[in-house]
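Problem 3 from the worked examples.
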Amino acid sequence: MSAAPTRNVVALGGGHGLAVSLRALRGVTDSLTAIVGVADDGGSSGRLRRELGILPPGDLRMAVAALCADEPSARDWAEVLQFRFPGQGELGGHAVGNVLMAALWERTGDPVAGLAELGSLVGAVGRVLPCSLQPLEIHARIRGHDPGAPEVVAEVQGQVEIATTPGRVERVWLEPPNAHPCEAALEAVGEADAIVLGPGSWFTSLMPHLVLPELGAAVASARGRKIIVLNLDPQEGETWDLSPAEHIEALIAHAPQLRCDVVLADERHVGAKNTRSELADVCQRWGAQLVLSDVAGIGDRHDPHKLARAFDTVLA
């Protein structure tokens, strides 16, 4: 399988899901842009965000590391970016790449320029952009967030709180409501031959891109082929009880203007025959082609090599 220079691909998401998509997509295109969410409020990212008033760097760092050049020195630097300081001191739990990102942003005064410098350090084979140049906060309406009141709908805020809810997420939105997307991200979406969404945390990594108004509208109106990659299993917390079809229905409810061309799912993780039939029906009504393929790796992670082969097929 060889890279195809004519494929200008944009991948949206965050965390491990986006990272595995990037590792797969770099095998099928030499023009790749990652657009990363900036609503994380937990761990090292949350601490730096609160202390320095910067974008949460963690998911951006992971995307840069996933795009590192296939050379020993670049891979070494990517490992350094991912290294976390041990212990309970002030540096304990911080990833080196997060701290370095904060320094680059302080030096450049520009998140996009700082990301470009970090990418050059690891010889990144694509671009990494934030979805917005200002930190965002996810809000959600959740039914049963309090296990003692399973029918009560509560408003919950914060990515960590929403991602770990024991209830059912009914709606998500972003604050501030007038937040603008990164201009470079809008341009990348408009120029894309293909746009990939997922896998990843459905309501806290994928959906925020679509409910950021200008970015969601740009994705919906983009000429590029749109591909949704379903998760292998429901995520403990925010989607623990959602079927594959309900994942797509939630997407449609949040972005009714969006039409996708392909829904890519692992053939073994779609589940029983009736579950597969339900998913096929939802995709057909949406006007999307359901493609079932072997893309599973170990545990709940996709295999980047298998996923690359699937991407090569649906992008052909």
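Problem 4, a separate protein:
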Amino acid sequence: VLAGCNTSANPTGIVIYNVNTGSSRLIAADPGSPVWSPAAHVIAWSSEDGLFTSDLESGATRQLAGHPAAGVPSWSPDGSQIAVVDAAVQSLDVFDVSRNTAIFQVSVIVDDAKQRAPYLSTLGGPSWSPDGERIAFVCWDGTSDELCVLELDRGEVRRLTRIARPTATGASGTTGVTAGMGPAAWSPDGS
């Protein structure tokens, strides 16, 4: 799958290219961040227009969320749910794919931070634990990116890191912010 490819011979958007035959199939004209489901016949992608899925067997495309999404969506290990960061609301959203409904929405802003996350595009890329019971994601404490985990059985968010805050004063006279943490990756045993 390739997102956003644009040449005179190729369509623009979410396109599947068959490496054996050279054929291509346009899935969506809206470029985004595509991810295959574990079932391998459904693709999810996020974009400025929201979160979408396309069933490659039936050809059906559905929109799960209408707000701009930050980063790449993430499938649960069993393929029944998708997690994505909502850029407008600044939340981690979890959707039940079969029911086309949101089942969790937790803020990516922690510790009562008053300031919105300035670089939300780096907050994308939630990561499911191998057992499907937790989701790691980048959260924001008002001055720096942090790593948080959503415990799905309790709906509880735990902050795992406490990155040292910058002490220098920027040119504008305000303390700088630290952002840019990449997405989390779980060890195979989920510990």
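Solution to problem 4. Confidence is low (pLDDT under 50) at residues 1-8. The first strand starts at residue 2 and ends at 3.
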